[in-house]
Amino acid sequence: MKNKIVILFIGLIFSLILISGVLAMEVKECTKECIRNTSIKINECHSNFSNCLENAKIDLKECSSFSGKNKTICVKDARNEITQCNSDKKTCLKNIDNSLVRCKKKCLYDGKNITCEKGKYNAGDIFLNGCDKCECNWNGRVSCKTTEYCNFNVNDLNISKENCETNNGLYQPLCAGSIMSAKCTQEVYCQCGGKLNLTCPSDYTCLYDFYLNKNRRGQFAQEWIEFPNYRKIGNVGICVKNPNLASCGNGVCENICDNENCSLAETSYNCAKDCKI
How far apart are CA 207 and CA 174, in angstroms? Predict the structure, then answer.
């Protein structure tokens, strides 16, 4: 009887060692695949940057055909293109680095069926919730971070002065305070709502729930002002371009991101039909 128990015990230990070895090999292969995919994405980042920079340099070279104020504007625009190229590259590489970390974690925990919010999200999922960008972590808990523009892309804020003002918007920095202590953002926005009943172009949304973080200079007041006459204009919003979401209207709030790419994820702000507040 004792011999049988010993044999069974040895067999169990051997099975566990064998299973552990197989799992270790699977994790190793999974990690290698993460690294291979990361290498491809990094090359794509550098390729996109090179193309972007080349186009910007061509635009800068063409500025020599202009003169005076037109040349100054052309050069400024071309240099802004170069700055944007560098910014996009930095963001791209940062997103890839974050994706690699998550991919390696997934290799370790894959198959353990770790979920968050009663199975709504799988471990590693990144999803949007209102103004928050959230992640279902490997401990089964959700962590969120509030974004500046309620998960709208910063490029969605781009609008020309003419387009803004033609549609009864106020094109200026966000300013608050008095004549002696006015504070303004560096960036210019197309502002909407408020006491002046400002509006956005038809393909834009008036966003009130924005949070100025890196652009903040001191503590802004609750009420904004029109600059430079310091007229109080109330609680204004900023115009953000509506994203093209093919799935919006299907009755399902598809708020999970594709890795770091959340451009097609839905929220109560960009698809109120499907995502309720």
Answer: 13
- The three-state secondary structure class of 136 is strand
19 & 108 share domain: yes
Place of tokens 């909407």: 192
Q: Is residue 122 part of a domain?
A: no
| Number of separate domains in the chain | 2
Q: Under a CB-based contact definition with an 8 Å cutoff, are residues 233 and 225 in contact?
A: yes
Instruction: List pLDDT tens digits, range 188-241.
Output: 999 999 999 999 999 999 999 887 654 443 444 556 888 777 788 888 999 999
Report if residue 267 sits inside a domain: no
Range of the domain at 194: 154-241
Short-list 143, 135, 147, CA closest to 207: 147
CA distance 61 to 201: 34
CB-count exposure of residue 4 (10 Å: 0-12, 13-18, 19+): exposed
Mean pLDDT of 11-16: 47
Collect all residues with Cβ–Cβ distance below 8 Å to 81 and sequence separation of at least 6: 52, 55, 56, 59
**90 shares a domain with 171:** no
Q: E-strand spans in the chain?
A: 115-116, 121-122, 126-129, 132-136, 142-146, 170-176, 183-193, 204-207, 224-226, 231-234, 236-241
Question: Domain check: are 100 and 159 in the same one?
Answer: no
Q: How far apart are CA 155 and CA 135, in angstroms?
A: 23
In a domain, 167, yes or no: yes
